Queue: 2 jobs
Job 1
Amino acid sequence: MYAILLALCAAGLLAFTTNALADSDDEPISYSTAPVNDPVARFQKRLDAGEAKLNFDPKHGYLESVLKNLKISASSQALVFSKTSFQRNLISPHKPRALYFSDDVYVGTVRDGAALEVASIDPRQGTIFYTLKQEESKQPRFVRQTYDCTQCHESGMTRGVPGLLLRSVFPDSQGLPIFTAGTFATTDRSPLNERWGGWYVTGSCGRQRHMGNVTIDDEKHAEQTDFGPTSNVTSLAKIVNTTPYLRDTSDIVALLVFGHQQNLHNLITRANYDVRTTMRDSEALNKALGEPPGHRSESNNHRIQNACEPLVRAILFSGETKLSDAVKGTSEFAREFSAQGPLDSRGRSLRDFDLTGRIFKYPCSYLIYSEQFDGLPPEARDYVYRRLWEVLDGDDPGKAFAHLSDKDRRAVVQILRDTKKDLPAYWKRKG
């Protein structure tokens, strides 16, 4: 009877902690209070120590200096005119918000806005939100934001974690979303014809259609809008004045990368949170049931699998929407992005673009090199590496990975062997 009672208590503990995952401020996550070590937090320490400096200019405030210090290229600029920011009153089709991004930092700016909006990826806690006042100061400070940002940036659309959101809407003439027509969260799985509503998009995509560059006149029949005439816009000159911005582009290739990247960041965070919570629960169960430390029950193994399998699929672009025609951008983004490497012994990189049938030539995400991926709990990282190997070595030819040819699998394995230094030993065997 005592053993049965213990088991029932353990089951109750498991049920409680699983439900509690909905709140990121619960232990062991403690999102709002745990220390962070994201790129912006590290940069702020350098500012405070006098080791770095932000320059203010009358036209763009701190924007250009922030981008330079955080190594974000202006070619990543994306212009969004839907009123979907906390500074939405200053946003319109005539005054779009500008977004810039690197692998681990996102910066948003609004003309005449009070602050820069910043999202920075912490290796352990995921997306951390900041604002930086757009007024000259001797000691500029990135101020962390939690509740004000997570009202929108912690929901089912962000995988239930504080995260990033790339949203496509039907915008009216003022940029207000027509919610009765529906909205779409954009990832690399999204059909092109559901992407970029409320965004400016520069570039060509052939016969494919997207929702960019359009405001909706007929709100009652928004879904019937013809997006054909605006799907291959290579210049915004006749649509909006881009003189106040760093670039005159909102590059389609940058937007494709953005859609993949922000979703994968959220999936890494989800896996991180779930596995940390699972391991906390596992130790509590072991103590209650007299099991040795480190023992994992079958149910906890299933929890790790459920947390990490969506991440494995996303890393390998499972379900990615196929491109039916070639895509071409209008800025230096593609060239600059590809040049970052790392390169294998044959000069190949996971950043090499395809842009004819899919985004990348080699279907494995470059975010496997990120601090956030490396910051996964060991149990999560071990699971992901094992599953990646099973798929790429041909042991899992299932439907989820049918898009990977034998040539794709060999190339990804070869590239990772040359460029990812912490691969498990079994990855080194020739196959």
Job 2
Amino acid sequence: MTSTNNEGLRREIGILGLAANTLNRTIGAGIFVLPAFVASFLGETSILAYLFCGFLMLLIMLCFSEIGSKITVTGGAYAYIHAAFGPYAGFLANTMFWFVGILADAAIANAMADTLSIYLPILSEIPFRALFFLMVFGLFTFINIRGVKHGDNVVKINTLIKLIPLVVLIIAGIFGTSIENLKWHALPTISKLGEASLLLFFAFAGGEASLNVSGELKNPQKVVPLGILSGMGAVVLFYILIQTVSQGVLGADLINQSEAPLAAVAKKVIGPFGSTLMIVGAAFSMFAALSGSILSYPRVIFAGANKGWMPQIMANVHPKFATPYMAIITYATLDFIFSISGGFKELAIIASASLLTVYLGVVLATIRLRLDENGKTNGFRLPGGITIPILAALAIVWFLSNLAFKEVSSLSIFLLVLSVIYFFITFFGKKKNKDIEI
């Protein structure tokens, strides 16, 4: 039986849906080019970077699991930060989170169009490219407005389809792997491992957005930890297997295939069809990732509108389908505008720093709520007290310290602008309430 939360949304997403969207949002276009990039840093020891980043991301996702099982309203990371640190921190997290989502979607949409233009050159022309984006975002908007269950089912199906080419490559690659190509001849330096890990970390990011639909999860105390951890575990497994077969099949030549390493692997073990399969698979993988975005990120706008940080119309719930339809339309429209404008490229520099800041906020929120609960909790609880959150916080601070100065300065300016906006929203909000009282 489906229940309705006090936000007017229906709790219809289970463990499989959350795990599928975690996997779907994380495995996008990156997996099709990462093997060569990582190999350029670490060579035959590339697997170390995946193990290291997978471990660090696991620490962070464990924090998401604990706090997500306790705070079950819509908004995901934003809701956790707001609950722990109040409206100012919540406003910053809310705006950064959905804005970063739009930047990522715009990049994915354009990469998808670029990939498909290999077979459909017409997509290189701006009018037809814009029409293509309109069709894609329009389709996902329609599906998600008609019910969270519809959006969830589409994500499940898309995730399954997008994994088929990768599974085929892994199986074929195992039989085409040379053990000699996997032998280590020397260990990498710490600096090289750090550089590769910084690159890889953002390939592991994205799955946290699946928790934006927390208000629509059937049984958050159970679904959040099982869904997010199984989804991220599957991500780590796929990344490791893909890197292993790529290295095992191509060996030292892997670093020379920077544009399409998986296509090169598939061509060698399957034939010309394998290369085509990987290109089509990459395009569909991006298409699937966008379906997950339109399901997840509008909920952050919806949650912000409920707090008064966005126009109240964004908090409207469809009377029949129980979905935040105005937030969905708004988010998809912004996705479309940024995708066709190309302006996202200048703003994308703040994305990585913003995402790390949100991660740090969630981890610190986990610590704050753990200390406040005095040993009592109704949700999932991490072993070892606050040891895991502290380790996760240190890992994030390390990643932040390795960001370029331009990224850090851009984030600082962005936070300053958001702070000014927050001041005006709260100032005029208080003034309006005072006028009403008079």
